[in-house]
Design goal:
Blueprint: H1 2-23, E1 39-42, E2 46-50, H2 51-55, H3 60-65, E3 69-73, E4 77-78, E5 83-88, E6 95-102, E7 110-111, E8 117-123, E9 130-134, E10 141-143, E11 147-152, E12 161-165, E13 169-171
Parallel strand pairs: 6-9
Antiparallel strand pairs: 1-8, 1-13, 2-3, 4-7, 5-6, 8-11, 9-10, 11-12
Length: 176
């Protein structure tokens, strides 16, 4: 009986260690994500919006064709506050993770200097794929893009930290 109990105890300890090692993070930084390069340069950007997806049910093939795609200009800003929320991107989808920039209740974004070097210091905790931009005197704008948190390391805005469009940062080593 003692032999069986000791084998069960050893097996339990082994399985517990196996799960602890298997489930632990190797870098310990959950906000950094796994996007590779941590530095880059601020650049102009636009966001491609598929209008067909917004107003009707479309197939995967229609999404890839992008016959009704438009390029939306976005403000080249860094915002000090980005909220995380859940919204419907289309009338046909359920609630999805959104990054929300709300200039009605938070400080407005500060225009950034194109070409300034940045360090990527964070990502949205909700892993948003969509963004909602709310600014005074403008209709709310839903966009299929995310935000990243940066610290400006060169230029007149050196030291500024905040959130900007994912596409506004050209990562070091990234091809054009």
């Amino acid at each position: 009986m003692f032999l069986i109990k000791s084998k069960i105890l050893i097996l339990s300890v082994f399985l517990t260690l196996f799960f602890i090692v298997g489930c632990s993070s190797s870098d310990g930084d959950s906000s950094s994500g796994s996007s590779g390069n941590k530095t880059g340069v601020l650049q102009s950007t636009t966001v491609t919006v598929n209008l067909a997806e917004l107003y009707s049910k479309v197939s995967e093939a229609e999404l890839k064709e992008c016959n009704q795609c438009v390029e939306r200009k976005v403000p080249l800003n860094i915002w000090s506050v980005m909220e995380e929320t859940r919204q419907n991107y289309t009338q046909y989808s359920g609630k999805e993770a959104f990054c929300l920039i709300n200039d009605h209740k938070n400080p407005p974004g500060e225009p950034f200097e194109v070409g300034a070097k940045v360090e990527i210091i964070g990502f949205a905790g909700n892993d948003c794929k969509y963004s909602l931009l709310m600014r005074p005197n403008n209709a709310p704008l839903k966009l299929p893009t995310s935000f990243i948190k940066v610290r400006v390391t060169s230029g007149s805005q050196k030291g500024t930290e905040g959130w900007t469009w994912n596409g506004a940062v050209k990562r070091d080593g990234e091809e054009e």
